[in-house]
Amino acid sequence: MDDSDPLLRLTDHGLFCEAGNFRVDPWRPVDRAVITHAHADHACWGCRRYLTSAEGQHVLRVRMGREAVIDTSKFGEAVDLGGVRVSLHPAGHILGSSQVRVEHRGEVWVISGDYKIEPDATCSPFEPVRCDVFVTESTFGLPIYRWAPQAAVFAEVNAWWRSNREAGKASLLFGYSLGKAQRLLAGLDPEIGPIYTHGAVEKLNRAYRESGVPLPPTQYAGLRKGDWAGAMIVAPPSAHGTPWTRKFGATSTGFASGWMRIRGARRRKAVDRGFVLSDHVDWHGLLGAIDATAARKILVTHGYSAVVVKLLRERGLDAQALATRFEGEPDSNVAPEAEPELDDDPDANPDAGPLFGEEKS
User: Fold this and answer.
1) What is the domain range of residue 264?
2) Separation CA 10–CA 315 (nearest Å)
3) Which residues, in sequence order, are bridge partners of residue 146?
4) Which of 91, 224, 242, 280 could be bridged to 97 by S-S, CB 3.0 to 4.6 A?
């Protein structure tokens, strides 16, 4: 392995494999993009051709529009790109999320994209992939970030919903439209009451259902009028505090994010309840995932990369920070995500294009 001529290198368009003439998760339009998942900081709108997992094709189509050229491969299936062997492996982040394995002349790199270790009902579970070089995220790369089992979190969410129903309130739960919202829906108990969704969430629910992911029955909130007491409404964070939320009357608000682990995050977000639920790997999972690759070199990107690199070096590993434009999970102080008009019919804009370009988790 020649470190002076790496298999992938960072350019102003993203991670570039010169031997295969493709980029992984470019942040500017390119001719050939290999995509780990459909969140906007990893899937740039306007590329000439995309390669994504077969599992994730419907959600990427929603983001990129009908005209986008999208190739797919099954998990573990090798594709030849200019003599370079490329395969996609489950990352467990959202539906279709993949680690990208790149092999050329006996050298193997794996780009993790975003990932989590705990399986959930809405996507294929993470699988460790052995490699020479592992490019890993570190969104929650601090020891404080340790996740409780998701079953316990969903029990908290459903108990909160029941309490609100008994108090004659609607429950307004915020989670990012792609991935987090569907994971929340899959954890809700539909016996408690009816479930409604914001248009941006409902559009992506359809893509999940088309992909074979079972979700509880939901209704588009924009088409309903009347008493909302006892209902659950799932919406993106950008809907919080907008006129759209006033129609629900008396509500209790909740927000699901890994950042809720930090004291004061719920107060800064101005919600009644915070639920610690992230689609990213926590501290222990991150270190375990790195160990499982048996990589001789680790490149650490978006998140607490300096902290992770320092620890890995103390353990005798060759680790470096890699500066990218990936964002991980936006914290509670980021600018609101762009989305359709809040009361638009989900059918009104079949080609989302860049309109969904700010949807993240």
Assistant:
1) 150-275
2) 26
3) none
4) 91
Compute how many other C-beta atoms are within 10 angstroms of the C-beta atom of residue 47: 23
Q: 220, 244 in Cβ contact below 8 A? A: no
- Domain of residue 171, CATH code: 3.40.50
d(CA 114, CA 321): 16
What is d(CA 37, CA 111) in angstroms, rounded to the nearest whole number?
Answer: 12
DSSP string of 8-68, one letter each residue? SEEETTEEEETTTTEEES-SS--SEEE-S-SSTTTS-TT-SEEEEEGGGHHHHHHHH-TT-
Q: Which tens digit of pLDDT belongs to each residue from 272-290? A: 999 999 999 999 999 999 9
Count CA within 13 A, CB hemisphere, residue 347: 2
Q: At what angle do helices 283-293 and 305-314 cross, to 10 degrees?
A: 50
Q: Are residues 166 and 57 part of one domain?
A: no
User: Does 333 map to a domain?
Assistant: no
Are residue 29 and residue 69 in the same domain, yes or no? yes
Please, which residues bridge with residue 291 across strands? none
**Same domain? 238 vs 296:** no
